């Protein structure tokens, strides 16, 4: 910010103070960007009381250049620092919500999902304003850091006689601190944070590109890819088999001190109710390929037997013909196969890969009630619609269904309440339920409140699903239900595992006898020490348990 000559002449002291203040602000902005961590937990004052190597090297570089190259170099370095700052901020957000860093190759598409989620939580206008604000912030950071670096470069050049020795001293101090390992409060005084961040981003890009080719080869190999149709799941012939995914149903729901008491009471109570109706259950743990979101990665991992932990892997596998667990039923020709997907609101070409003859999306279930934040309809309604449209119909052969339950999707407000099944109608009955519920913005801002409402949503989803089974299940119904991933880190905790519960419920004792060797816990609540498998192991174990014969295809 240049000071006008008239102001400088009229008020020299004030002009000098303004000039020095702008210099100090530029230095603080650049140093802060160079020292900025990539996690919210790292935002501590001691992290910014360090000597960044990049600042020393940059000062030496700018001092060695003539004016025009110096300005260009300073602008490019500043803009690059601005881009790095944006990536650090994205890392903070992704770590807070998804428990992992931002992938510069794969994750840009998730920003659209973030905008949609913000719209559900805060309203469309607020979400649009936040998106515009985010774009402006990016532009301000990149432009502001470029201008700040240019200003500092010009300042160094004007005071070259003092700046050059100062850079030499700073470099010597940095080298000394590094050699001696000097620390303050456990934090090294010498920092190369920005260089390390650039290196980490570059490493992720290289790893992502290498993984794409390696995974394509892995996906072509399939232990059951060439299994004849009559040798796929022969021990379930004649059964109606339902695979239900419960959104964000993770180990946290069963073990967190604040959340677990209500959830475990519900699981135990529903186990007893189902037992009185003749059903038995076995439960264990699966380690999900995703955390906090990207539910489709969990769905595809569980059903394909492949570890699908990023969007590129998902695109690769769904473009091929790797056998999914659901498609195994379709391939036999012995089942009708349907999908109930209330969260799908646009074209979904993956239906063919999953082997689903018919898919009911958010617009096909006849729902006329209100949305519950992100969830287009309560789980109870989606299950009743499934009963009306498919499960309750007279048919010539049994049914295999994949159902995605969405009521436990963040931000967990408002959470639906159970109503009488006979009063569900077109869903309008939920208008009053939604009006009486909490506002998403209030829950999002309250960490403890988010945890409580998350627990309520899991209780609602599990109760809806097991009531559907109690009400409509038959002697030949087999229900497999599991979580797709843990809830976001703000709810599950920064060090939470990726484990999710999985249960198999049936009346026919032979169905559960087939998995006796799994050593799963009796009932709907898996014991803390119950077996834990990678989610990608589930498909092959399930197919094998129910009589499928491996016939591999090559990679």
From TrEMBL:
UniProt keyword Iron, yes or no: no
Keywords: Membrane, Transmembrane, Transmembrane helix
UniProt xrefs under InterPro entries: Alkaline_phosphatase_core_sf
TM annotation in the entry: 21-42, 48-65, 72-90, 129-150, 162-182
UniProt-recorded name of the protein: CDP-alcohol phosphatidyltransferase
